[in-house]
Amino acid sequence: RAILSQVGIPFAAGYLATDPEGAAVAAAAMGFPVVAKICSPDILHKTEIGGVAVNLTDAQAVREATAAILARACEAAPEARIEGVLVSPMIYGGVETIIGVARDPVMGPVVMFGLGGIHVEVLRDVTFRAAPFSVDEAQRMIREIRGFAILQGVRGAAPADTDALAQLLSDLSRFAIAHRERVVSIDLNPVRVMPEGQGVIALDALIELEKERAP
Asked: Of 68, 102, 196, 213, which one is least surrounded by beta carbons within 10 A?
């Protein structure tokens, strides 16, 4: 989050708490409901260990969820470095998307984009571009997926902010090419594309780095 924020990728606000009481205080300050997620460089897939709690509506719920998340993390990954629990506002609305970067051995960094949920898990409705690319190319990329109509607005929903989405894709492509020797992959999942004029919000991020080779 810290690294990608510096290159213009917008994230939901977050506070890193090291104990249940600190998480509850942070949640009360930012307003309910909130999400709590385990924060550890050694736990890459938070949901698989029960490291995420959503829609926490009061301080006691945050305390209990934080204590449970920390306990599950220690049990599931006893050797992991646990930094604490990240508390963020619960974000509603918009269209859920997934964005990623993988390093192809021939083409170098390649950016992937698709709608989230069943669209990527079952339908594999995604598209790819070699990095770097312009905002205009990102717009063409967005329009290639079969589910593009959802971003245009269906059943009375407002059109999504595809201009902000295209900017994010282009910015990420430039970051990927600039750090292609070190960055193996990037996962932004989910990214909520809000209604026109309201931008995009990345809710979680993972950067995989090249392992340092022994001299």
From this structure: 213
DSSP, res 215: -
Torsion angles phi and psi, residue 87, rounded to 5: -105, 125
Question: In 10 A of CB 156, how many CB atoms?
Answer: 5
The Cα 193–Cα 12 span in angstroms is 12
Q: Dump pLDDT digits (tens) for 136-164.
A: 999 999 999 999 999 999 877 899 999 99
Tokens of 196: 């026109």
CB 18 within 8 A of CB 84: yes
DSSP notation for 133-147: --HHHHHHHHHHSTT
Q: For tokens 């301080």, what's the residue?
A: 59
Length of the chain equals: 215
pLDDT at residue 156, as a whole number: 78
What is the C-alpha separation between 139 and 160, in angstroms, rounded?
A: 13
Q: What is the pLDDT of residues 175-214, one digit of tens each?
A: 999 999 999 999 999 999 999 999 999 999 999 999 865 4
User: What's the pTM?
Assistant: 0.91
DSSP 95: E
Cα separations in angstroms, 80 against 28, 63, 73, 77, 123: 29, 22, 8, 5, 34
Helix (H) or strand (E) holding 206: strand 205-209
For residues 46 and 139, give the distance between their C-alpha atoms in angstroms, rounded to a whole number. Answer: 31
Dist. CA 211–CA 185, nearest whole Å: 12
